[in-house]
């Protein structure tokens, strides 16, 4: 597999793709490593995870630069991503000593529950946030005593391969964390089909997520899905309009719009629509799109030529473009931030489908009920933002929107210590936060009779 720098179209590296036999061999190693890993004393497993996190920290700049080159992420963002992997590992390094069960009152004895690891876990990672998404699966899985295989995306295997080397250097035993680079339908699919892989954590498209649900069914394999999104950014007339407009471009154009949480639909209350659009135009003009290695760059290129073509198909020559930002010319998969304002959003493809690029569609709404109905008119339900000074309305709207992660007067949605995941076709299960450990363990109930 050729890894290309999306900002230059130059080859960065060539990585061999794992065959089904190679995946099977890796699964066998992970299975062999499992009994010893689950038996590591909690305090020692915690120490190993902290050493792993420290190793990531020591190599954060190297990892960030790898991400810049293979994924085109701006260097500042890539540094944050390496830090997020480190922090997620630190957070779950506190879990081994805290994986407590319950003691439940029963007659005639004692009832205890235990949280036991599942065995071999497969983590299938997309190309849009290779390091954080790897960490969200790997860290809790290892902390709970599982062994892990990571299948990175075809375009972006380099950081995952380096992270696995750093895990070994930190002292994690052989076979506990392995990376199997390869093609989705071959290496990824094999993890889903393999009877010895007990759980799949998949982040990617809704289409592949549905396929994997079916592939996991014959073995009743556990599955966590983080899929697509079409999130709404709702701006009420009483909001701090300057702040809402200044931040809206970053809520959708960051990572060149290749973000499952991208607020790619902006809903603006009709009374302030014209004023908001004026402010938004200024904000979009200020977005710095360019060379990801430059410190001041805010948005880089798209990941690949086919993806550029797909994003471009949502902005044909007769598209209702309100205004656009700028992007470099020449080599690289560049796409200028684009704001669309169709007369009617019903049936408008960029309003309904996940573009996964720097394209946002804006629509006016009349009142709270109209905003909620428009926001929920989608098969997805991942995140969203609500801008208003009315606390009651903020909470009513947040509770009414069918999505897993809402933010009020901000666009933050993913913190490693709070739960993250989707409603409807945006996913299944939750990652991160205190509850993620439940999806990497089975609960065992044991009753001890104390009768004579
Ligand atoms: P994708 O589904 O094409 O690929 C994701 C991963 O799955 C890659 O590693 C790929 O190799 C693998 N894969 C592909 N086909 C497979 C198959 N048949 N069997 C097993 N594995 C297979 O998605 P993508 O284009 O890489 O990523 C973009 C999508 O990911 C978007 O829809 C985006 O919304 C979603 N995403 C969701 C979240 C979230 O947390 N909800 C986060 C990031 C990205």
From TrEMBL:
Assigned protein family: Belongs to the aldehyde dehydrogenase family.
Catalytic residue positions: 226
A Pfam family per the record: Aldedh
Organism: Actinocorallia herbida
Entry's Gene Ontology molecular function annotations: oxidoreductase activity, acting on the aldehyde or oxo group of donors, NAD or NADP as acceptor
Domain Aldehyde dehydrogenase residues, every copy: 1-446
Keywords annotated in UniProt: Oxidoreductase
Annotated protein name in UniProt: Acyl-CoA reductase-like NAD-dependent aldehyde dehydrogenase
InterPro entries recorded: Ald_DH/histidinol_DH (IPR016161), Ald_DH_C (IPR016163), Ald_DH_CS_CYS (IPR016160), Ald_DH_CS_GLU (IPR029510), Ald_DH_N (IPR016162), Aldehyde_DH_dom (IPR015590)
